[in-house]
Amino acid sequence: MGVTNRYDAIIVGAGHNGLVNACYLARAGLKVLVLERNPFVGGAAVSRSLYDGFTYSNCSYVCSLLRTEIIRALALPQHGLQIIPYEGGCTMMRDGGHLAVYDNHDALRREIARHSPHDAEAYERYVRDMLRHCRFIKPLLLREPPDPTSFRPRDIHELMFLGKHFHNLGEARMYDTLRFWTMSCADMLEEYFESEIVKAHMAGSSIIGTALGPRSAGTAYVLLHHYMGSIDGAVGAWGFARGGMGAITQALASSFKASGGEVRVSAPVEQIRVRGGRATGVVLDDGEEISAPVVVSNMDVKRTFLKTVAAEHLPAEFIDQVRKFKIRGSSGKLNIALDGLPSFPAIPQGSPAMRGDLHITDTIEMLERGYDDWKEGRWSRAPYVDMLIPTQIDPTMTPDGKHYMSVFVQYCPYQLADGDWTDAKRQAFGKTVIDAIGAHSPDFKDLILHAEIRTPKDIENEVGLTEGNIFQGELTFDQLLFNRPVPGYAQYRAPVRGMYMCGSSTHPGGGVMGAPGANSAAAILRDLGRKV
Known about the structure:
Distance between the termini: 36 Å
CATH class of one domain: Alpha Beta
Radius of gyration: 23 Å
CATH superfamily of one domain: FAD/NAD(P)-binding domain
Number of strands: 22
Strand order of the largest sheet: 12-3-2-16-22
């Protein structure tokens, strides 16, 4: 096939970061095309109807990290986006007890005091310290990381900003911050809390999407990464996108089209075309060539440079670094259609704790043993689950009287020790998760109308995330800031001129945040001499 109309920029992948990037470029006056291999936009942030009358958020499932600056700049509420905050949460205990979580600070403190008066006092210190860590990292999220080996004025300026920002913490806090970024979540929580249930509840966020256990170095930062989001200015708050997570990417697509952008679905990119050391466009899998002087990949770094750009166009050392970048699959997902609202006897009837994330892992040891199963190539026999029933707050996702449950699971390996994933193994994994939930809800299994069961392999095959890793690469200290994705290439620019990255493999990392897409767009516009 011949070469089609030339665009100013092509974005490969219509996930949220690709769409954010496209929105900013289109608003700057560029002629922009977004190409998506699936027949729908959204990547991992999608709403899909897989059972009659039900809408699933079948990959990502909650909203908090999406930057307020991006929501405002792209006028997403005007394009239909509405975020509804949680009202609480709960970790259920094997002995029938529970730890409830409330959005009211005083109520939460009283609940913690029920388990440990010491921990209720410590919680004040914990919140203060976490907010301090959030305040340190927040200004870095929407900035291009500096290259510490460069003498370019911009890099020197950014290094000076980073150094001054760090120095302003004061000597004691500087040491504390470095310690925090490298320590395990379990060790960090031990410095605050004594109650096992309190520590287990807090530790859950440190392992989500991460091939590490709560006692692994670096997991304290993973907890912070989940903590630093906000809704309407409430730091650490989480919520549901009305209509499912696809509402975010639908709003982004609408904003993009309103700026004159074009989206093509069912258009898988086979190759990013390079001539004379410069990106010149893409080739689709049907042979169609589309020309543009700027090509932006929203795919993860491995899929981009090991599968979509020919090796002869890339430095051998760069390819070696990309191969070493850690993208390990560790998460599964169940989406369940329910005939009614299941009961959980451990949770007081009518409690707002039901209208948030529910957990069934009540000790750090249980979390660590689940990680041990993953290391041995099997799914966790007692899995950590982050389950939510958003239809208690958002009734638009199901028929009247019915409910939808989202169940995120740690740990589930990409490759099993006993061979490849089969349908029978997938069903057995799903049964393990359903049985674990059923142990806390006597009517849960009887209410199930349909269940979608997704392993890391399924997530990779559908969404294109290598090994099904939801962050496009683990959020450990060796893979952050100017090391993300690899040293020397953390500024969204590829080794090929005119080619850029905008996915979660780049700074500041994963989650439905949008910052990588926005930062990459700023880099592109600066290179083009356009106003940022």
